[in-house]
Structures are given as C-alpha cells and as structure tokens.
C-alpha cells in the first residue's frame, strides 16, 4: 500500500511539472524564436513567463533577426470594428482562411475612429491618436508605446493644429537606426509664421530632438507627401502633386545614421504623371499611378 501511495505521489508531481521545469529558459526562447510572428499573440497566453518573454522588446528584435523573410501583412481599421490583419499570401493559397482580429491599443478610452495609420517599420505601426498623441504599436504581440506631441501643438501657435493633424504636417514617419539600435518617430511641421521645423523622438531615450538645422534650404514641409517609407536605413518622401516646385521631380531621403537629407531624381518617364505615390515592393521603392506600378527604383 505504501509503495502504491509513493507511486501516485510521484505521478502527481510529474503531472504538475510544467514545461519550464523540463526545458531551460534559453531553449524555450530558441523555440519561440522559430515561431511565426502571427502566432506569438496566442503563445503569450500559455503562462506569465511566456507572456513576459514574448513582450520583451529584446525578444522582438531577436525574432526579427531570426525571421528568414518578412511576411507581407495588411492592417485594416474600421470605424465600427476591431482592427484586422490579413496575410495576402495565405489569403490566396489557403482554403477557409480566417482574418485575424487584433485589439487596438488604448481602445477602451478611444473609439477606432480616433486612430489613423501614419506609417510602419519592421513590424511596428505608427498611429495617430487624437488628441495630441502618437502610438507605436506591434499588432502581433500587442505591445505599444504612447507618445505625446502636445509640445509641438503649443509651439505651433495654431489653434486648429491638433484637429488638422496629420494633415497639418508635411513630413512624418517611423524608422530604425541600426547603429544606435533605436526607433525614431519624425514629425515635420510649420508654425503660424510658416517657419518650418523637424522634430524626432528617440524611443530608446524617450526624448525629443530638434533637427531644424538638417532641413534643406529652401524648404516647404507642405510640399511633401506622407507618410514616409522606411528602407535601407532611410525614410523616403514624395513631393505632393499639388505643389510644383524645384522638388517636383525628386524623392526626399533622410538618412537616420547621418541625420542628413538628400534627394534622388524621379525617372523622366513618370515626371509628367500627377497622381503618383511611393510604395515598398520587393525590397525596393516603387512609383505607382492609380494602383498601377510604373517603375521600381534601386540606388545606393
């Protein structure tokens, strides 16, 4: 009888042993790094340890480095529904594909209509949250960071600036500085005297930096389309078709490492088009008109 009781106790202890007791934390992390990013949100529900591990920004960076190739993902935000993620490759190749719904950050206090997508970079999405806030959000892991730009509103001396944002700004975007291992959010704007300014916030130091001295001269922030596209360590903007100036045939580029601007010319065959825009396509910047890709650009 005593031996049977001992066996039962040992069996109960074995059942109570979790995966954390069987595998070392380093091995669990290696396994999780091989899991596709779109499944990580569910894995966070396994335990508090897994939730903490997956939510760690360092894990997100390691996971990005281990990913063999980025999976194109589309984000949709509707006024009366949750945000949704769609993976185009699976949508057209898998039967009974289900669209994944994700919860917007800070939604309890803000309806979906308060959010506007401003850009994206390495799996992070830049949102504008009324009033006076930007949000850097990872829709796959649910992590987010709220950034106040109220000081820009006060500096602008324009009472309607907050309600006009992002239309009141000409430049904005999200980029990653690999040399400093830092994500940067940029906002270009002009004050009531039409003096142009450029500010960026470092997510590593959580501090704003003024970059007015880096702006090319002459400069009009309203000339440029937004949001900026991040590629090869730089953010790219295209001139707004309503403004025809010296910049009309160029793409404005800001190098995050050097903190400096440069420009490249638009190919002659597309200069005459008015309704053009920039997109990322296959690791290149592409120019398209009314949904039709015109030309892919490579440089550097």
From TrEMBL:
InterPro entries: F-box-assoc_dom_typ1, F-box-assoc_interact_dom, F-box-like_dom_sf, F-box_dom, Gal_Oxase/kelch_b-propeller, SCF_F-box_component. Residues 23-62 form the F-box domain. Gene3D superfamilies: 1.20.1280.50. This is F-box domain-containing protein. It comes from Stylosanthes scabra.
